[in-house]
Please model this.
Amino acid sequence: MAKERNEKEQKHIFSLLVENQPGVLARIAGLFSARGYNIESLCVAPTVDPEISRVSLVTTGDEFILEQIKKQLNKLINVVKVYDYTQIPYVQRDLALVKVRAKPEHRAEILRIVDIFRSRVVDVSPDYYTVEITGDEDKIEAFLKLLRPMGIKEIARTGPVALARELV
Model:
């Protein structure tokens, strides 16, 4: 049975700079599992420095739990820097690939929805379109809601990736 989210629990994004070495991600995941915290999404990729990777991690918790997570992440030896996006402005985007049934009578409508949401068709087969969409979580959810009646076969999502805004 799914646990209901407490009113004070919030979805939270951490961005970590870590050494690009084997086992770093396992240690991060182990930290969460050992304490019973959930990782809602996780995205890892190299930065401009090939020795450093950025980990975008989404979790939930109240203020106390989030502070504990941040402290524990900072203690991990291969973690260079932990960015906590609670108090600072940031830019966030998700990516989703959606395989939707493209019956002849729905193709024009699918293409209209794709255009309205500024997404794009990245693959076409006789029966399906694969569509790429980027944006915030609300935009992607609205997009999926419109496509569901046509028949979504598969969805692959990144979860959010984020960077702090540069203040002018």
